[in-house]
Amino acid sequence: MKAVILSGGFGTRLRPLTLSQPKAVLPILNKPFCLYPLEWLARHGVRNVTFATGYRSASLAAVLAKEKPRGVSVLLKTENRPLGTGGALRRASVKYGERFFVLNGDILARFNLSEMLGFHLKKKAILTLALVKVPDISRYGSVSLKRDGEIQRFAEKQPGLKRSGLVNAGIYIFEPEALRRIPSLIPCSLERDVFPRLAEKRRGVFGFPIHGYWKDVGTIASYREAHEDLLRGSSGRLLIGKGTRIGQKVKLEGMVSIGRRCRIGDGARIQDSIILDDVRIGKEARVTESILSYRCRVGDRSKLEAGTVLGEGSRISEFSQC
Ligand code: GTP
User: Is 226 part of a structural domain of the chain?
Assistant: First the structure.
């Protein structure tokens, strides 16, 4: 089967990390984000993936040219102007002529995609949306289902209404018939324009509640959580990239991910932080619950307090406090 990964957004909620690169290239545990959904799709037999890109697509192209999984052919379709999730999908998949998967490019998921396909086929759906149960739907807008799993209604975001419920997980199976309902070359949103109209007017739009790991890595908080989740699932709470040198009497505490070719000065203390490639941290500096993008420089004896996020190439002079 084929798939489209929607990766053209500006990623404004992840600024300053996305000022110099798209979300799809931002690393999680030193691996570009786009490789996680690609590998997951490949494990479920997807062999052709189109990335619908826009913002800073050249850096995504460069990563995929070097690092894509074996056996998967990858194509980039780049928009000159943002077409929204709907317009971008229509443009990227218009020649498919067969059923295909669609993923928001900022979703980290590990559930059985083949089961979702089985459900879609059994229901003879024209469109199936993966749904995830969250404790607070007010940030998302919710989805209500009929008994047989058909989608009854999409409700808008209701800030203030704090309750659990099913929300769109950003993973879909489209039949060509559903794709044809998206206007071509006009900017539009799948979530706001296409899905509510389809569910209202046509039969065959189903929701598949998923069980398994799911995270929308679209905010600084969830970017940090994704590191925690993946580190917890691996060998421990610490990752040190190749070529990184750690000085004498350095303390690395809690969840720490350090990129490649970094230098950590003697006596520095790093706690619950994410550090990307080529960062220099000076002697006796303190970095607490912070995120440092590529090539940052932190001077000797500086203190970065909880919540600091430094964009690419930031310079913090010695004894500074942020
Ligand atoms: P924010 O600016 O932080 O909201 O992030 P975003 O621009 O990525 O938007 P959002 O998280 O709502 O987008 C969900 C997915 O759709 C992401 O993977 C985006 O990259 C992608 N996306 C959003 N808008 C477009 C678009 O106009 N074109 C393409 N190709 N993809 C898009």
Answer: no
- Per-residue DSSP letter, 150: B
157 is known as an active-site residue: yes
Pocket probe for ligand 1: among 6, 10, 17, the residue whose CB has the most ligand atoms within 8 Å is 6
Pairing of β 143-145 and β 213-216: unpaired
Quote the ligand 1 centre to 23 CA distance (angstroms).
Answer: 9
Instruction: Provide the domain count of the chain.
Output: 2
pLDDT score recorded for residue 67: 87
Q: What is the DSSP letter of 155?
A: P
Residue 287 has pLDDT above 80, yes or no: yes
Give me the domain span that covers residue 260. 237-316
Nearest to 112 by CA among 178, 36, 45: 45
Ligand 1 binding residues, C-beta < 6 A: 6-13, 23, 52-54, 79, 82-85, 88, 104-106, 218
**Structure tokens that stand for 259 in this block:** 């990129």
In a domain, 230, yes or no: no
Nearest CA to ligand 1 atom 10: 9
Q: Rounded to the nearest whole angstrom, what is the distance from the C-alpha of residue 198 to the centroid of ligand 1?
A: 21
pLDDT tens figures, 120-177: 999 999 999 999 998 888 877 788 888 899 998 887 777 777 788 899 999 999 999 9
233 pLDDT higher than 70: no
Q: What is the pTM of this model?
A: 0.93
- Tell me which of 31, 122, 146, 157 is the catalytic residue: 157
The CATH number of whichever domain residue 40 belongs to comes to 3.90.550.10
Which residue(s) pair with 252 in the sheet?
270
196 and 300 assigned to the same domain? no
Q: Which of 95-109, 156-170, 298-312 has the highest mean pLDDT?
A: 298-312
* Residue 120 shares a structural domain with residue 263: no
- Residues 6+ positions from 264 with CB-CB distance below 8 Å: 244, 245, 246, 247, 250, 258, 270, 281
Q: Give the CATH number of the domain where residue 284 resides.
A: 2.160.10.10
